[in-house]
Amino acid sequence: MWRAFLFSFIRRKIVLSVIFGCSLTYCIVSFLLISPRRTDTWRIPRKLDHSAFVWMSAEVDLNNSSLQSCRNTVQGREYIADDKGYICQRDDLLANNCCGTTEKRYICDTCNADGCCVLYEHCVSCCLNPNKRKLLETVLGKASETFRVLFSAINNHFELCLAKCRTSSQSVQHENAYLKSNKHCYTTADKVP
C-alpha cells in the first residue's frame, strides 16, 4: 500500500513537471523569438500622429443646425456645452442634443488668462474657439508620456477639449480639495496655476 502511494505521488510529480516545462518553453518562445505584429494596439506610440485630426472651423453651418445632432458635455447639472461651442441651460437643450444657435458661443466667462476655468462647460466652450487652435496644437505636441495614450485616442477638437478640461490628480491636494477654484484647464500646463 505504501508502495502504491509512493508510485502515485512520483507519477503526479512527473506529469506536473512535464506540463510546467512545456508551458515555460512556450512562454519563452512566444516572448523572445516571435516578433511583435504590426496590429498590436497596446503599444504606446512614440510620436503622436494627428494628421487626420479634425479641427473646428469658424464657419459652422448654422442653417442646418436643427437637422444635425450634436455631442455635448452631458454631465453638467446646470449647463451643457455642445460640440459647436454653444452653452445653454440643461432645460434649454434641444431634442438633437444641441444648444440653440441663439445661445452663447465660445464662453470664457469663468476662465482666467492662463486658460483655466471655474466651470467645466465654460472650459470646453472656450477651448472650442477656433482661435485657440495654435495653443491646442502645442498641447498635442508637448503631450507627456503619461497623457500620450489618452491623446492618441483623440481624433477631433471636441474630444481634445473634453479631455483637457477634466480635472486631474494634479489639480487637487490631499486627494479631496482643489488647489484653486479654476480647476478646469485647456492649456499646456499640467498643474493648475
Task: Give the arrangement of secondary structure elements.
Blueprint: H1 2-33, E1 79-81, E2 86-89, E3 104-105, E4 116-117, H2 120-127, H3 133-141, H4 145-152, H5 157-165, E5 172-173, E6 177-178, E7 184-185
Helix pairs in contact: 2-5
Could you please describe the fold and organization of this structure?
This protein is an alpha+beta fold and 193 residues long. Helix content is 34%, strand content 9%. It contains 5 helices and 7 strands. The strands form 3 sheets. It has a 3-stranded antiparallel β-sheet with strand order 1-2-3, with helices on one face. It has a two-stranded antiparallel ribbon with strand order 4-7. The chain is elongated and about 90 Å long.
Summarize this, please?
With 193 residues, the chain is α+β, with helices and mostly antiparallel strands. 34% of the residues lie in helices and 9% in strands.
For the largest beta-sheet, the strand count, sense and barrel status come to: 3 strands, antiparallel
Low-confidence stretches: 40-45
Q: What is the helix fraction of residues, given as a range?
A: 25-40%
Gap from first CA to last CA = 79 Å
**Helix-strand string:** HEEEEHHHHEEE
Count, helices: 5
